[in-house]
User: Fold this.
Amino acid sequence: MNLDDPGALKRFLAKHDLAPRKGLGQHFLCSSRVVNAIVAACADCKGILEIGPGPGVLTGPLSEAAQQLVALEVDERVPAALAESAPKAKVVMQDALEADLGAILSGLPEPRAVVSNLPYYITGPLITRIAEAAPHYDMAVLMMQKEVAERILAKPGNSNRGSLSVYLQFLFDIAKVVDAPGGAFMPPPKVDSLVLKLTPRRNELGANPAVLFPLVRMAFGQPRKTLRNNLLGDVAIKGHLDELLAEAGIQATLRPHQLEDSQWLTLANLIDKLKDQRLG
Assistant:
């Protein structure tokens, strides 16, 4: 069933009483260009987990291309619609923020993909949940607000760079798939979107994640402050902070968005070493 035409989608939504709900942040995709780009990005995947399938504009073609597709949904109106638009899909009624994504993915054939048109109001938490499940899939193809995507893509030195940028770039190789302007959705949102492809990095991180990622979060606590001023809040390293920064080759006046990946790793390893010495 072809639902990537606005007229066909409008009739289908009316048939199933599936008007977009503002409270769920629903903006249904209706662009064949965007649908085709996402399906092409997942072309090699046999198992797909789609989060938030809605009426099935993506679900239909994805389920036809893959061996198995699980659609995770919270809207009780969706299963009846998907039975018509994507009969091969298995619908699981569960909140993606609470579901065991790893367990669901482990039941799918490899290679596996996670696909989602991320609701704007839970984009950050949902990306984090998807990132945590990275050992269980080969790629994530995610549509999000363009402003968020640009922050995720921001390189060192770019003032758009934040803790999410650093976190995701350590864990994934990230590439742009396709632009999705507001007109590609029904109803059209007031912002444009962008689809990113995140491919998990399987190599060693280079630092203890239990030290590295809390360090990054604290360092970006107040992004306009210097890295040093943000890290003064960590009582465990406060008395050694200037020494740690000097040993890592980091100027005390740098702001967190200016650090290179290698500097984050060096600083995290020095802090880890300091904490080990204290325990010893």
Remarks:
- The mean pLDDT is 94.
- The chain has two domains: 6-200, 209-279.
